[in-house]
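Instructor's aside before we start: the two examples that follow are unrelated to each other. I chose them only because their records fit on one page, so don't look for a connection. First example below.
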Amino acid sequence: MPEPTYSLIKVKDVKDNVYIMENGGLRAVLGVPGVNFELMNEEDQKIMLNKFKTLLDGLDFNLEIFVLSRYENLDGYFKILHERLKEEKNELIRYQLEEYIAFLEDYLNNNKVMKKLFFVVVPYDEVSGELPLQIGQKLPSLSYEEKLFQLETRINYVYEILSSAGLIAIRLNNFELLWLLFEVFNPNLRWGQVPKQILEKLSEFLQ
């Protein structure tokens, strides 16, 4: 019998703005703004590539970069447009708004508008089996606070390099981490359309 989807989630808990994994490892997630590399001039492209090289050269731990693609959710934008339409007294502007709304609705019905979100996952796992040990020797186990400190050191390094490249990363908090988990395992939703009851459950989980 196939295992349920949630069995794939190896997160044991979420607190202190980190995922706590089943094996005791920690994961912090940084949201990073996207850039259009093709629109940069040659000098800026070189700077960006050099900064990325500096980031990779300075790593002594694994770093995960992933892109989450979702259908764009424009419901909020349409709501603003319709409210503006109700308030508008000028007939010409009303006509232009109506034409614009109709154009958008037709375009979205016939085209897939995607939103891409970029994340960097900064991990901390205790060393295991990579260093030669003498017979009977065991690696010392770090406390949760010590692992958290090591993770924060890594996060600061990644922050610094990204900032020097003009990329201002945003650390996901506890609620955002839970939200991200839901989004990853529910790809059929448009971004930002997490059901209200799910949001309430996520909030209860953090209380």
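Example two begins here.
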Amino acid sequence: VDRGGLHVALFHGSARSGLPFQEDGKEPHAPFDADRIAASGLHHALVGHFHAPVDGPAHTYPGNPEPLTFGERDTGTPRGAVVVEIDERGGVTRTRHPVARTVLHDLTVDLTGVATRDEVRERVAGTLSGVEGIARVTLEGEVPPDVDVHLADLDGVAPHLEALVPRIGRITVSYDIDAIRERIDTVRGRFVQDVLDADLDDDLRRRVLVTGLRALDGRTDLEVA
């Protein structure tokens, strides 16, 4: 800055202090050091590039006004339009105004304890009761081996929503491994005993047991989370 008065910058750039927290796939653009803003004679910088809102001592990122994806990082500062007032001495006051018309919810439904596919649907419907906008629902938990969890079963479960995006999370099957192992004279019992005797880590052992028992039950949904 080469003259008096109040000076405000408006540009697209990456504060170096924010690089470790950068959104996935977002390359640094015109990186700058936040402490150099005041040193340059500027009183404040209004900056774009990062989608997460930031109220820095000498710079402001408003954040994306509309949600762009599920799971956006929450900094505790609302995204939206920002009115920045600068007084005669360069003091800054910011007022944030959320302007989003789209409402996103990222929810998890625990299916542990369900006994039927209808109960899966009922549990999801209960979670979505009173929710508005667009919801992503992740299904997780422990279910009996005779309960198939299919995303297609959730069609129409929440007609009041603008959209529902269901997905399968970490779902495990509650086989009674000890009871099956005791029946060593059966193929299932021998299989379980062989897997338990194998040199496998706990997670891999679980996946092998569930996949094998599903196959022995004649099921085709063999993928295990």
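The first helix runs from residue 35 to 39.
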